[in-house]
Amino acid sequence: MADNRTASIAIAGGGLMGRLLAWRLAQAGLEVSLFEAGDLTAPGGACWTAAGMISPLSELVHSQRAIFDLGMESLSLWADWAEKLEAQSGRPVNFRNAGSVLVAHGKDRNELQQFQRELQAKLGDGIDGDLRRLDRTRLQQLEPALESFEQGLFLSREGDIDNRRLLPVLLDLLRRQGVRLHEHTEVECESCAISDRRGRQPFDCVIDCRGLGARHSIDGLRGVRGEVLVVETGEVQLQRPVRLLHPRYQLYAVPRSGGRTVIGATEIESEDLSPISVRSTMELSSALYALHPAFAEARIVETRVNCRPATMDNLPHIHSEPGLVRVNGLYRHGYLLAPALAVRVEKLVSEQLNQVA
Amino acid sequence: MSAKLELYGERFDSRLLVGTALYPSPAIMRESVRESGAEIITLSLRRQNPEQQQGKMLWDYIRESGCRLLPNTAGCKTPREAIALAEMSREIFRTNWLKLEVVGDDYNLQPDPYGLVEAARELVERGFKVLPYCTDDLLVCRKLLDVGCEVLMPWGAPIGTGLGLLNRYNLRTLRERLPDTPLIIDAGIGAPSQAAEAMEMGYDAVLLNTAIARAQEPVQMARAFRLAIESGRSAHAAGLMLQRQTASPSTPTLDMPFWQQSDPATQ
């Protein structure tokens, strides 16, 4: 910039991506404004619905190599960022880097083998050490609650983060950093400007991370419905995310503090946001029941429904033009991809600002 | 034998029909469909809350493939459910073609023959061109023809198992006893060789989904199936040789007196 003033950045979308970027860019000394169409305290986006899994290996089975590479990068960024976030806010975000366990019932034992084969086919020998077969004894040591399973797989480089803690912590830090927060403000993004119903505001750079809110700006962006249950019980406690492999669906259970377990998620090609269906409730709860019968007495304390923003290739997209960067299509991989993508967006933004200068 | 596949008066060059589910992404699905050469693709509305048209974005994307759409009633367990979904599909996709599924068993998704016949009768009356997903039982197949189905789609094996042609005797019987009915093997095919075998047996076409969608390289697998099906069809048309117990050299061996070269089986 010609003058010496601080560069101004507008971020559209106060979901995970928007918050992380706002936090990072404000830390870098930029003047950040964050615009959110909905509520920042109770976000309506997929980031609030998600279970917060960071599982590059498990997700690779049904996706492409890029997801794994970005995911591995994010996993190590999370370890660093979670520590910073906790130190800055004085509040926990419960990032857990304890790996994940996969199990399958007797009849579906082939699913474990198939899973392992697919990972090996995609990663070659690169997964040695990251993937371990568990016999009954070792499974018991890792996850005492999974006593009805004879075998499983352990993926050491997987983690998760408590999104219901992380997102408020980020919001709190943004306030402290002096980020200008505009809730209930639907905006349109263009190069070096944000416009809402009150008018048009200029910025040095605009970042569009509105998720499905950017539907009209990004070709082929669609919503993929997902449904999640949250249950509570004092009777059974998992130690880490557990996936149950089944020929027809893949469901996971993520333990949270206070005896809670998040179980998800369905995947339906529809932008339908109506409440969870009976069928999905049955699928999710029967998967949970299959993990341990004591879950039958758990209480369903919440059901969540949302749509994941996805492009037709189900890969994340970053689009950059002077004065405008768009990032979208994180699909079912929000927590898995956000830090790695944030780093890329930061780089693009700083390149743009330097060019202007 | 006609070179083209004829179903309900329409002709197709391709004898491979594919599903649109389970792919890593819609883009890979469309690329695989293109590579498979398929001209007919099935798709399901179930679970998408079709009344609200909220899966429209993907349907339009599928439609752009240019293939004939064959909506299915996957997941329906009663004739009433299947008929309701069929009507909705006809309206949304503007086609009266229907892959009729009435599932009778949750575990292997086996077609319920009674519900299937009942639903087929009603749907034919309502003007649908019904392609029923059925078992390989001759009498069920005949019943389906009696109520007005002109094409049958017997299973090779239960959906998604990849077990291939489980009951060759039944499948051969169907082919022999229903020589004029277009027969499509639907479900259970895991490998191109199994698809080729179905075509060699004289089946008119093969419908599959999982084997392509769940392959590590779906586009490449789509090509493999296209080639296998062309190959199997060609083999059937060319007339397969009969298997023999004794080797017979295809070129006479020069250092052998020719009276020893004849086939012992014919002596």
Describe the structure.
The complex is a heterodimer of chains A (357) and B (267). Chain A is α/β, with parallel strands linked by helices. Chain A has helices spanning 16-27, 46-49, 56-60, 65-89, 109-123, 136-142, 163-177, 278-291, 334-356; strands at 8-12, 31-35, 53-54, 100-104, 131-134, 152-155, 159-160, 180-182, 188-190, 193-196, 199-202, 205-208, 222-232, 242-245, 250-256, 260-264, 299-310, 317-321, 324-328. Chain A has two domains: 8-91 and 163-219 and 314-356, FAD/NAD(P)-binding domain (3-Layer(bba) Sandwich), CATH 3.50.50.60; 100-156 and 222-310, D-Amino Acid Oxidase, Chain A, domain 2. In chain A, α1 links the parallel β1 and β2. The longest helix of chain B is centred in the C-terminal third of the chain and has 21 residues, at 218-238. The radius of gyration of chain B is 21 Å and the shape is globular. In chain B, β7, α5 and β8 (153-154) form a beta-alpha-beta unit. In chain B, 37% of the residues lie in helices and 15% in strands. Chain B has 267 residues and is α/β, with parallel strands linked by helices. Chain B has one domain (5-266): Aldolase class I (TIM Barrel, Alpha-Beta Barrel). Chain B has a five-stranded parallel sheet. Chain B has nine helices and ten strands. The chains are: A alpha/beta (357), B alpha/beta (267). At the A-B interface, α5 and β13 of A face α1 and α2 of B.
